[in-house]
UniProtKB/TrEMBL annotation:
Residues 764-884 form the Glycine dehydrogenase C-terminal domain. InterPro entries: GcvP (IPR003437), GDC-P_C (IPR049316), GDC-P_N (IPR049315), GDC_P (IPR020581), PyrdxlP-dep_Trfase (IPR015424), PyrdxlP-dep_Trfase_major (IPR015421), PyrdxlP-dep_Trfase_small (IPR015422). Keywords: Oxidoreductase, Pyridoxal phosphate. Pfam families: GcvP2_C (PF21478), GDC-P (PF02347). Belongs to the GcvP family. The modification N6-(pyridoxal phosphate)lysine is found at K697. It is an enzyme of class 1 (oxidoreductase). This is Glycine dehydrogenase (decarboxylating). It catalyses: N(6)-[(R)-lipoyl]-L-lysyl-[glycine-cleavage complex H protein] + glycine + H(+) = N(6)-[(R)-S(8)-aminomethyldihydrolipoyl]-L-lysyl-[glycine-cleavage complex H protein] + CO2.
Length: 945
């Protein structure tokens, strides 16, 4: 007789059945190894009682089905219009093959930044294609692998120009024809650096009075002009010429490099990346060859592997801010890599002929509109343009804007008497008819045949000549190319990525799906508020939850990376000090703080004073007290990471905050390790005045091969009036081009919080701490664990000390590369302590995957023992020859260990083994012979020989 037994399994419990990896039974086994009675006992042993929050997070959780239904309701509150606003954001058509195979493919969106090049050859090739595309279209030889947005790229170009200019002038010239949001961010970045910003018409430029100048081409209102004379005049004065430009326009227009520009910047958004209410989109920068070593951000270069085969890698990597700290020239360490990959594939998908055809269609549609308006008696400017015109409508401005809106079109309001019209790839005859009807023109427009581009401004040089841009564009071939590249990579869809401080957790499909819905993807960031009520609801509710999680009173969603959040937070502190008539410029930063902190402080014009660590990894309180007192009334802020990057909860955190406040400073708590705090500790309640949150870490936005990210900042009430303002206000302290940064990916974090619920988020934190302590407990006999905390526990990450093995010739690099043979991405290498590995398992990994990683690490330890005890030399060991490729497997084998040991070490899958496409990459060769664009085919042949 069958009995009815109620099931205790809730399939709708997203937090415990989908997001959190270990089952209750597995957690029990892990707790036994750790030596804790239960999960709460472990937390009590790990997190100081005096900082624990009093009230639990208590909002209810939604199932995946309920979440998607809620998202549909919210999406319906957004009104999708045809946007002809322009101003740096344009309608575009994302080829379905790219949407499905790149944007919606976890092989691409769960990958990490390509620091380990052997397991990132696919995304590195895609990013090299991106650099080649940018370099070719701008006419400048070196491009980087994307920046955050056009406005911040312009600000980075200003700072770069100051570094490389021969002129000693202190001012920077900004053409009035730049997009307003770009001018706003330039002003923000210039103020703390003491740079005078001169905004005027190009005709007013005095080259001798400035170290550099930036022009928009085409201008924000459509104007195009040859900038050769301005560039030459700047060069004569030892100054730098920068051009903000549009990649689609450059398919027809004379390129900046041909005009003598030193640097070109812009956004690749209209190359197939939805507007998304402001982002994410990949910005770009290209420069003259002699300036490449001063360029911020990441550059993909070409090197060779151990066998002499061509291999890609990040070049000039020592400029990364985690390494250079207070000597950094920029805090840019996040690139919008996933979006750069999309833009690069858009160029591969269409090729130069296709891009030119799209550009010609866009331009002729704009000319068609201009001709029809002029024929009806309208005053249309300018005479020469690419895709944007401005129409003087006088007192009828409001009526025209309203009439266009009634017909489903948004136009740009320009001043009090004009409207702007920017035509894009999605503009068709129907849109043109509706647009003209809003002006009272009912006759069918006559399609233009002649361009409105002067002959001297028409491009006469070739671009995208590399074979990759001329491949057969049948969808079958495109699909296979995307698959080949993704197969070369190791992403989270294949294996655990145990990177300390980077929190590579599950990016659930249900969280990702709404991002590509038109109701969220097709909105312009400057659309009227009545059309964006859905986004307003998302942002308001996410803000409410983040305030509850952190104990802060207000949030700004504008910073579009964690480093950008650090910068915005420090600016907020500075603005508060200024409002009180105080001139404070010293920032105390412990060596245990996050690596980008010193760079952010430098960018704010602060003087960085480094605070020592105590032997147990805590902040040296005596050193901190002394340096705070020395700073006195110049102390602006302290930047701490909590728990620290050493992976411990410090008992002295409240004391550090008290000392800072006693000296009049403000406390910045870096949110990099928020995954150890959610539901347990509120930074705003332990003394923090401001924190940024890495939504791409703690709150489930995927890393995407190096971005997108979001770094919103939370502040206590007294700092709220000084948060970044709308970037359309030129003097408002904006840090990004759009009011809410990369707004479309806020949907992911909101969905994550809704499906986890308050209790689920807290449980995730507990399990993350359990996972790290489980790894530490199982590996501490093989690898010393640094900084176990005062109670013998680590936080959500632990540092394995591999430095003792150096005496036997085994390096941390050897261990990292050997892990590739086991099918793992290495933990964070040599940071924050050189020669160590920092491991963060996250709550999403199952016990089986944790055990597989532990098995791999123990097997590697046995191989180190073989070297230490003289059974094999380090140079002959599998450690030094790692990683092993299929080519190694099938080639003649003359090594001092077996094929089995080399290619199938413990922990590696047998059937589904990941094979790296290249052997160990030669970093020195790549930097010594810097190649940052797709090499010609003969280079491939030479490498093969």
């Amino acid at each position: 007789m069958t009995r009815w037994t109620p099931a205790d399994y809730n399939p709708d419990d997203f937090a415990n059945r989908r997001h959190i990896g270990p089952s209750p039974a597995e957690m029990t086994e892990m707790l036994k190894v750790v030596g804790a009675r239960d999960l709460e006992a472990l937390i009590d042993q790990t997190v100081p009682a005096e900082i624990r929050q009093a009230e639990p997070l208590d909002w209810p959780a939604l199932s995946e089905a309920a979440l998607l239904a809620r998202m549909r309701q919210v999406a319906a509150r957004n009104k999708v219009m045809t946007s002809l606003i322009g101003q740096g954001y344009y309608g575009t058509f994302t080829p379905p093959a790219i949407q499905r195979n790149i944007l919606e493919n976890p092989a691409w969106y769960t990958a990490y930044t390509p620091y380990q090049p052997e397991i990132a050859q696919g995304r590195l090739e895609a990013l090299l294609n991106y650099q080649t595309m940018v370099s070719d279209l701008t006419g400048l030889p070196v491009a980087n692998a994307s920046l955050l947005d056009e406005a911040t790229a312009a600000a980075e170009a200003m700072a770069m120009a100051q570094r490389v200019a021969k002129s000693k002038a202190k001012a920077f010239f900004v053409s009035r024809n730049l997009h307003p949001q770009t001018i706003a961010v330039i002003r923000t970045r210039a103020l703390p650096l003491g740079i005078e910003v001169i905004v005027d018409d190009p005709e007013a430029l005095d080259p001798k009075a400035v170290f550099g100048a930036i022009f928009q081409y085409p201008g924000t209102h459509g104007h195009i002009r040859d900038l050769s004379a301005e560039c030459a005049a700047l060069h004569d004065a030892g100054a730098v010429a920068i051009v903000a430009t549009d990649l689609l326009a450059l398919c027809l227009l004379k390129e900046p490099g041909a005009m003598g520009a030193d640097i070109a910047i812009g956004s690749s958004q209209r190359f197939g990346v939805p507007m998304g209410f402001g982002g994410p989109h990949a910005a770009f920068m290209a420069c003259r060859d002699e300036m490449k070593r001063a360029m911020p951000g990441r550059i993909v270069g070409v090197s060779v592997d151990a066998a002499g085969n061509k291999a890609y890698r990040l070049a000039l990597q020592t400029r990364e801010q985690h390494i250079r700290r207070e000597k950094a020239t920029s805090n840019v360490c996040t690139a919008q890599a996933l979006l750069a990959v999309m833009a690069s594939f858009y160029a591969v998908f269409h090729g130069p002929i296709g891009l030119r055809a799209i550009a010609q269609r866009v331009h002729l549609n704009a000319v068609t509109v201009a001709n029809a308006l002029r024929a009806a008696g309208a005053d249309v400017q300018p005479d020469a343009f690419f895709d944007t015109i401005t129409v003087r409508v006088g007192v009828g401005q409001a009526g025209i804007l309203a009439a266009a809106e009634q017909r489903g079109i948004n136009l740009r309001k320009v001043g009090r008497d004009r409207v702007g019209i920017s035509v894009d790839e999605t503009t068709d005859t129907g849109v043109i008819a509706r647009l003209l009807d809003a002006f009272g023109i009912t006759e069918e427009a006559v399609p233009a045949e002649a361009p409105a581009i002067p002959g001297e401004l028409l491009r006469d040089s070739d671009y995208l000549t590399h074979p990759v841009f001329h491949m057969n564009r049948a969808e079958s071939e495109m699909m296979r190319y995307m698959r080949r590249l993704s197969d070369r990579d190791l992403a989270l869809d294949r294996a655990m990525i145990p990177l300390g401080s980077c929190t590579m957790k599950l990016n659930a499909a249900a969280e990702m799906m709404p991002v590509t819905w038109p109701e969220f993807g097709a909105l312009h960031p400057f659309a009227p508020p009545a059309q964006t009520e859905g986004y307003a609801e998302v942002i308001a509710d996410l803000t409410r939850m983040l305030c509850e999680i952190t104990g802060y009173d207000a949030f700004s969603m504008q910073p579009n990376s964690g480093a950008q959040g650090e910068y915005a937070g420090l600016l907020t502190i500075q603005a508060w000090h200024r409002s009180r008539g105080e001139d404070r410029d010293i920032c105390l930063i412990p060596v245990s703080a996050h690596g980008t902190n010193p760079a952010s402080a430098q960018m704010c014009g602060m003087k960085v004073v480094v605070v020592k660590s105590a032997p147990n990894g805590d902040i040296d309180l005596e050193d901190f007290t002394r340096k705070a007192a020395d700073a006195g009334d110049r102390l602006a802020a302290v930047m701490i990471t909590y728990p620290s990057t050493h992976g411990v909860f410090e008992d002295t955190v409240r004391e550090v905050c008290r000392i800072t406040h006693d000296h009049g400073g403000q406390v910045y708590i870096d949110g990099a390790n928020m995954n150890a705090l959610v539901g347990l500790v509120k930074p705003g309640e332990i003394g923090g005045d401001v924190s940024h949150l890495n939504l791409h870490k703690t709150f489930a936005i995927p890393h995407g091969g190096g971005g997108p990210g979001m770094g919103p900042i939370g502040v206590k009430a007294h700092l709220a009036p000084f948060l970044p303002a709308d970037p359309r206000q030129e003097d408002g302290g904006a840090v990004s081009a759009a009011p809410y940064g990369s707004a479309s990916i806020l949907l992911i974090s909101w969905a994550y919080c809704l499906m986890m619920g308050g209790a689920g988020l807290t449980q995730a934190t507990r399990v993350a701490i359990l996972g790290a302590n489980y790894i530490a407990a199982r590996l501490k006999a093989a690898y010393p664990v640094l900084f176990m905390g005062n109670r013998g526990r680590v936080a959500h990450e632990c540092i394995l000390d591999t430095r003792p093995f150096a005496q036997h010739g085994v390096t941390v690099d050897d261990i990292a590369k050997r892990l590739i043979d086991n099918g793992f991405h290495a933990p964070t290498m040599s940071w924050p302590v050189p020669g160590t590995l920092m491991v963060e398992p996250t709550e999403s990994e199952t016990k089986a995957e944790l055990d597989r990683f532990i098995t791999a690490m123990l097997a590697i330890r046995d191989e180190i023992t073989d070297v230490a005890e003289g059974r094999i030399a380090a140079a002959d060991s599998p450690l030094r020859h790692a990683p092993h490729t299929v080519e190694n497997l099938v080639a003649e084998w003359d090594r001092a260990y077996s094929r089995e040991q080399g290619c199938f070490p413990p922990g590696a899958f047998r059937v589904d083994k990941y094979w790296p496409p290249v052997g160990r990459v030669d970093n020195v060769a790549g930097d010594r012979n810097l190649i940052c664009a797709c090499p010609p085919l003969e280079v491939y042949a030479t490498a093969a020989e």
